[in-house]
Design a protein that fits this description.
Elements: H1 2-14, H2 16-37, E1 45-49, H3 58-65, E2 69-71, H4 77-85, E3 91-97, E4 107-114, H5 121-139, E5 147-149, E6 156-157, H6 164-194, H7 197-202, H8 208-238, H9 246-273, H10 280-294, H11 309-312, H12 316-328, H13 338-358
Parallel strand pairs: 1-2, 1-3, 4-5, 4-6
Antiparallel strand pairs: 3-4
Length: about 350
Amino acid sequence: MLAITKASFRSIFRSPSAVVFSFGFPLIFIMVFGFIGGGGGGPVFKIAFDEGNDTHNALYDSLIASKSIKVMVYPTAAQLETDLNKGKIAGVVKIEKNPVAGAKPDYILRFRSTTASSDKIPQFLTLADNISQKVNNAILGIRPAYAAYVPRPDDIKHVTEYKMIDFILPGQLGFSLLSAGIFGVAFLFFNLRQTMVLKRFFATPINRRNIVFGEAISRVLFQMITAIVILLIGHFVFGFTLIHGALTLVELLILSFLGLVVFMGMGFVVSGLAKSESSIPPLANLITLPQFLLSGTFFSIDVFPGWLQPFCRILPLTYLNEAMRKVAFEGAHLYECWKQLGVLAIWGVIAYSLAVKVFRWE
């Protein structure tokens, strides 16, 4: 019994799949969801400061120092407005000196937001009011004296509601394409090679390109049907936004096709590298799992620490998800997603170049 125990124990540690599934994946999940949790301590509100914001006052310093506030910096006003309209930030803060000389309060806090952040607005204003009162008490001992929030009628802009399904569905569709392209192709071509079917094909006058394209086209057609079903159910059942209707649906299907082609190239690489059928899942998961967790499938990659975000931004699924969300909700067209399409094209060239090198007939 002891000998069997020792032998079994050794065999487990010699199995890559056993090690990865038993140790690697649980640790990755713990790390990822640990980052999301952020260690507790209540909600953290993302805000941006207006360009004309007064930074030489105690209220500004107190807002910056608050652990419940994360200040976002945007390179362009257009990017700020996009995130504001989608509810990615609570709003835009502007602190200005009271224009009436000698009047109280000394500083006025302005807050601009949209209906996309309707759930965050009251909470943030309560937080800002508490911070303002602490500043007032610390400086003058009375309130309101130093700073106060003054609302304006046009501070809250009405926009198209950015629902959870508008974020989740593109990520799920992207991951479905990733899984189908890698797992489907890898298992299919490995089995064809293992059963000597590819070798028999090689001995016939059939062109190898026809073999590959034949199998690829059948998979593409199946996944396109799947994509149509997912998008239509998402739109009619859950209210997924198709900003330009049928045109947006067509552009999303084109993106799905391009993404699937890239991911199938990765599947060819896995099938060529696999030495046995049992080695396919570990190899495939090394490609799919990081993208599933780090490419914005369930949540924005902004929740991850700064050192991890550059890695997130080189993954192909990240750019497919971004392109789908831009087209579906923001109304962008394919030519406006040139950056995302360019990165996918680079990944496609890399994948098929490797696939050619590792392809084997038997």
